Amino acid sequence: MRDKETSKISEIQNNEELYKAFFVDSPISILIHDKETGEIIDANPTTLKMYGFSTLDELKANEFWMEPPYSFNEALDLIHKAATEGPQEFEWLNIKANGDLFWENIRLSKVKINGIERVMATTIDITELKSANSALMTSESQLRTLVDTIPDLIWLKDTEGFFLACNTKFERLYGSRESEIVGKSDYDFVDKEKADYFFKKDKEAIEAGGPVIFEEKVIYAYDGQEEYLETIKSPMYDTNGKLIGVLGVSRDITERKNSEDILLQAKLDAEAANQTKSEFLANMSHELRTPLNSIFGFSQMLNERVQGELNDKQASYVSNIMQSSKHLIDLINDILDLSKVEAGKMKLEREIFNIDEMIDETISSMKPLAKKKNIDLVEDIRIVNSEIHADRKKIKDILYNLLSNAIKFTPENGRVSIKVNYDSETLDIDVSDTGIGISEKDQEKLFEPFRQVNSFLTREFEGTGLGLAIVKRYVEIHGGTLSLKSKPGKGSTFSFSIPIGTEND
């Protein structure tokens, strides 16, 4: 627009009346300077308004000049160049009547008015544009600083796989500056197989219309360092929704991967150690059971007076031997059973049997223990069909352990209840007591082998600490679930549910 204004002025500058009319009406600030002294000869109304003056005399009297590079000498030098060398265009910091600073874009050109050569200045206030550009540059600088500060690799490619931008961390990957990477593709920096893989992932992101996430191992060309990366690639679109390319962000997960490897190895080592332990316990148990069975058998013979009568002291010794050897045999049998389960060698021996009879048999075996402590045994048996297809011995062991524990940990004059529901598909049994109860934190370790909730209980209530561990594993190999509800001083309820298969299972 300003070039057209200058052209029109040149055309009409010899027609003073027409020139004055154009000069006065122009929407652009126009000043006429003396080409030698730089003095303001004339200025149009737009100029007066822009500077904040009412008259030309006020404008002429204004002190425009500041320190270099916006001083009078610099301005005069530019006026001389316009007069001798041709048009000059530049940005200039100026001052208004109220003292406000503002930016101008100034164009100086030589003109002849009434036969006298002058220099004409056409100016535009660009303060807002400068501020906007400055803000944009600041924003871009801050964004660039942020992107380069982020420890992740960040890059942008077009739809054909050519780089549009990347950050400092990505420069390390290819050992090149951004200016050397932009305009090139992965094929310029890595082997074809690797580049094909990168390009394939770019296409996957575009086709998916959203992020694709994958892990990869890379070697930095900058220093040869190896890293595991988690990479996210997403399609990028402009404001009109047109696809620009693919944005990639990769994060170093080397430490996490190493931790995962360490944890995996630790898990494998623990499993191997546990297997070794189970095998050792099984072997030792076999070695110990044979002599213990002999001791128990011989002590039974002595107790039955097969070789003659015993005095009271001898009978007491024999009784102690029988009890101790029986306790050790039970412990060894428990260890053998647990070892088999943990080694995956425990098999279900399913058979058809009468669940009513088995439950009655187990409860009957518990009655002497309950009677000794004056504990009331309460039964609630609801069985639709008494025939059941399951492992009789293991289910009996589960029930026996739960009932014996309930009686063991219930004080005298307490109550132990057994509730049974069997509907031909699921066997549900609850064993409840009014015993000492178990705290929530102790419940977590209750089913671990050789664990009781504290050493005091171990001393007060004799046991191996294997019973509940075996119960849990027997329930699990049946495909069932075991749960516990308990509060200290309020008693406990152990519940297990086992799906019952058909005879063909």
UniProtKB/TrEMBL annotation:
<dbReference type="GO" id="GO:0005524">
    <property type="term" value="F:ATP binding"/>
</dbReference>
<dbReference type="InterPro" id="IPR013656">
    <property type="entry name" value="PAS_4"/>
</dbReference>
<keyword id="KW-0808">Transferase</keyword>
<dbReference type="InterPro" id="IPR000014">
    <property type="entry name" value="PAS"/>
</dbReference>
<feature type="domain" description="PAS">
    <location>
        <begin position="139"/>
        <end position="209"/>
    </location>
</feature>
<dbReference type="GO" id="GO:0000155">
    <property type="term" value="F:phosphorelay sensor kinase activity"/>
</dbReference>
<dbReference type="InterPro" id="IPR036890">
    <property type="entry name" value="HATPase_C_sf"/>
</dbReference>
<dbReference type="Pfam" id="PF02518">
    <property type="entry name" value="HATPase_c"/>
</dbReference>
<keyword id="KW-0547">Nucleotide-binding</keyword>
<keyword id="KW-0597">Phosphoprotein</keyword>
<protein>
    <recommendedName>
        <fullName>histidine kinase</fullName>
        <ecNumber>2.7.13.3</ecNumber>
    </recommendedName>
</protein>
<dbReference type="InterPro" id="IPR003594">
    <property type="entry name" value="HATPase_dom"/>
</dbReference>
<keyword id="KW-0472">Membrane</keyword>
<dbReference type="InterPro" id="IPR001610">
    <property type="entry name" value="PAC"/>
</dbReference>
<feature type="domain" description="PAC">
    <location>
        <begin position="212"/>
        <end position="265"/>
    </location>
</feature>
<dbReference type="InterPro" id="IPR036097">
    <property type="entry name" value="HisK_dim/P_sf"/>
</dbReference>
<keyword id="KW-0418">Kinase</keyword>
<dbReference type="Pfam" id="PF00512">
    <property type="entry name" value="HisKA"/>
</dbReference>
<dbReference type="GO" id="GO:0005886">
    <property type="term" value="C:plasma membrane"/>
</dbReference>
<dbReference type="InterPro" id="IPR004358">
    <property type="entry name" value="Sig_transdc_His_kin-like_C"/>
</dbReference>
<keyword id="KW-0131">Cell cycle</keyword>
<feature type="domain" description="Histidine kinase">
    <location>
        <begin position="283"/>
        <end position="502"/>
    </location>
</feature>
<dbReference type="InterPro" id="IPR005467">
    <property type="entry name" value="His_kinase_dom"/>
</dbReference>
<dbReference type="GO" id="GO:0009927">
    <property type="term" value="F:histidine phosphotransfer kinase activity"/>
</dbReference>
<dbReference type="Pfam" id="PF08448">
    <property type="entry name" value="PAS_4"/>
</dbReference>
<keyword id="KW-0067">ATP-binding</keyword>
<dbReference type="Pfam" id="PF13426">
    <property type="entry name" value="PAS_9"/>
</dbReference>
<keyword id="KW-0902">Two-component regulatory system</keyword>
<dbReference type="InterPro" id="IPR003661">
    <property type="entry name" value="HisK_dim/P_dom"/>
</dbReference>
<dbReference type="InterPro" id="IPR000700">
    <property type="entry name" value="PAS-assoc_C"/>
</dbReference>
<dbReference type="InterPro" id="IPR035965">
    <property type="entry name" value="PAS-like_dom_sf"/>
</dbReference>
